[in-house]
Amino acid sequence: MNTPALPPKMDIRKSGEGLPPKKRDEITDIAKGIGILLVVALHCDIGFMTGVDMPLFFFISGFFAPTLAKCPFSEGLKRKSVDLLKPTFLYVIFFGIFAFILCRLPEVNTVYTFLWACEIPKTRFFEWLTPVRVFYDTMTSWPFQPFAGPLWFVPALWAGFVLWFVFRPVFEWYRQSPRNKIIVIAALIFLYYSAVNGGIPIDENRRLPGWLARTVYAFCFIGFGHILYRHRDFLLYGKGQWILWVLALGALYWKKRYFHHLPDMDVKTMFFGTKIRPRSFLITFCGIALVFLVSRYAAMIRPVKQALIHIGKESFHIMAIHFVFMWLFWWIFMLAVPDISPYRNTVPIKWLVFLFAVTMSLVSVGICRFLEKTAGKKRAIHVGKTLPSSMGLSEKS
């Protein structure tokens, strides 16, 4: 029996046309959405899965490493720099301008000291925006601008990808035999403990070792993400589901054992304490497994799925600006209630701060995207095509 020929535009055997467009990975976006909610909750002192948040984001970043496998080093570096460093520098400049204005308003430093035990120093305008503050500080340490602390992960992630570009032939070699897989995984575990136990100096004269430690740390989780993404369907939907369940139950066990928070030495791995216990590595992966397991079942509830996907796509920008809205909440609260100390550790207030920070972050990004879209349409009238984003709000970040 002869198969009738398809029309040229539908002959997917030859041209690939007629195939449905490739969908964005929903489970990954849901996991990112849960991850950024864990970050904001931790900063609001609601630490359910402390220490899992940033390893989760580094791990998910490794999912996209294969898309850069055939990309030349210079092109890959350019793409990651545009996606990560461009919006980061824009945020740091914004925070410098913002800090110059804020420290001259009433009760601002009172609230800032209340939250982070330090003040916003009053300086001349351009002292906030020197190349050292904007670029050097951001790339080699935590950004020194007030409210920019959560962006510490960006230079680590960027440099981690630089390392991945250098060592990507190793990940191709990894697939050639079971022995190679064991060697690569063992090397990543060794690097993980080398970075963690290396310590992270926070004094200004020893920034480079700390930056390198964070870079190796990010690279390790990018590598693990790259490796495990190949087995994603097997773990989420195949016979390997039991592995996720065992790890997820392990995460819940540790949470039950240490109800309020896990021991710092076990989970605060991004601070590189000098006596990290070996179980910190296992607990991190238990937490990641729990997040992905929850993501899989959240995808079955349409409203929850859509909300988490939207939050996940905007996770970079929520990470960048949620500190501002946490501070704004307490500033308004202090202006209304002079003595706010009795309210700081109450559970309802913590959740109110959390909801305010997440909601206002999403509203702010939504406004920026609307203005971006409007400006793009106006330019398209003159140019004849829609121009790329001018505000650095890349969903790929």
Offer a few descriptive terms.
mainly alpha; 65% helix
> Low-confidence parts lasting 5 or more residues at pLDDT below 50?
1-23, 198-202, 259-275, 385-397
Form type = globular
Largest sheet: none
Query: From N to C, what is the helix and strand string?
Result: HHHHHHHHHHHHHHH
Q: How many strands appear in the DSSP assignment?
A: 0
Distance between the termini: 51 Å
Rounded radius of gyration (Å): 23 Å
Count of discrete alpha- or pi-helical segments spanning 4 or more residues: 15
The amount of beta strand, in percent, is under 5%
Structural write-up:
The protein is an all-alpha fold. It is built from 15 helices and no strands. It has helices spanning 26-43, 53-61, 73-102, 108-116, 131-140, 153-174, 178-197, 207-229, 232-236, 241-257, 264-267, 279-298, 302-313, 315-336, 347-383. Helix 1 runs parallel beside helix 14, helix 3 (73-102) packs antiparallel against helix 6 (153-174) and helix 6 (153-174) packs across helix 8 (207-229). The chain is globular.
Describe the secondary structure blueprint for this structure:
Blueprint: H1 26-43, H2 53-61, H3 73-102, H4 108-116, H5 131-140, H6 153-174, H7 178-197, H8 207-229, H9 232-236, H10 241-257, H11 264-267, H12 279-298, H13 302-313, H14 315-336, H15 347-383
Helix pairs in contact: 1-2, 1-12, 1-13, 1-14, 2-8, 3-6, 4-14, 6-7, 6-8, 7-8, 10-12, 14-15
